[in-house]
Amino acid sequence: MDVFTEVVIRIIKEQEAIIGPVALEQARKVGGLKVDWPNHKIEFEGDKTKIVESLIEQYQALFGQTSVEVCREAVSGVIAQLPSQQVPALLR
Amino acid sequence: MFSYPSNIKCRYEDDSKMKSTKSQNVAFYLPIAMLVGYLAWWVLINYFEWPDRDNYTDSYSLIALTTSVIGLVAAKKWGLFKSKFGAAIGYFSVGLFLQFLGHLIYAYYFRVQNIELAYPNVGDISFLLTGVAYTLAVYNLLRVVVYKGSTFKPRIILGVSILLTLGLAWLVYESFLKLGLHDERGFIYSLLNFSYPFIQAFYFLLGVIAIMQAKRMSGGKMLGAVSVMLVALMVQYAADFSFLYQSYHETWVAAGTNDLIYTLAYGLMALSILMIDRVRHNVAAAGGTQ
Lengths: 92, 290
Hints:
A: 4 helices
């Protein structure tokens, strides 16, 4: 599985455990991100780094820095697989 | 069989959905309107010698009932008990319903059985379980505010928590518990006298930690709503504390300061749930990021 896909799935899953269905609602608002959650299928249209950054910002708007920490923890196991320039700023 | 063309059916569904959302929105303001009414009533009773003290005392828990209902509606939108934030709102709502139930049972003993203070009775189970529900609510809220293993980070939070717990235990003991631990009426009384402040201490302590950690949510739209919820919890603790204090010192009166603090606690809880729902509504209505 593509690393960015894995990152998005992990973030949404972790946020879903905290804010329930609102997590998916917020993810579906991110431009360039198509989420087929029942099948865990993610499609990107555009710069993947920016799209993931936007996804985190959606959650950040709700619970601030806490939401960013949750996202960081969620992807800690996979983010190292990305070249440093592709890592979204909020996850660094 | 007749059926609407799909586009018309869809419009009707949208209309009914809109009406249901509108009625929900109105319902969210109901406990706030009740709070304003009860505050005015309290002022009239205490400063303009209006009658009906007993009616006030036996009915203001309706704010808790309506808040518990809208709380469960709000919690459902956050996944209810399947998510941490949904569970936090859900347990607060359950706690408020238990408060209403406790008040209702005490009112029954007073109105129907003509017993002024039927202590203990089955209503006390409801009041005690309120403390458990609130503890579970704040525990879940803490799991939203702080992430794995960082509850006591920075370390000063652990120190302040321990100091506050010890200070609270001393204050409770000196204020009234020393009178209640050796209740002449028997062991069940002593046990109940101890159980109330013991259970309440848990939600107070977790609430204090959550207040200290709430700044982690800075920059988030939910900070204000969660802060009001935590303040409501502290006011609820103040109400429980003052009830026990006034009961032990035989200074409690119907529609007095204690009932005012309870009214404020329920009203603030209603306000926080309204704020949470408004944030969710605004976020749902807002466009996405590009």
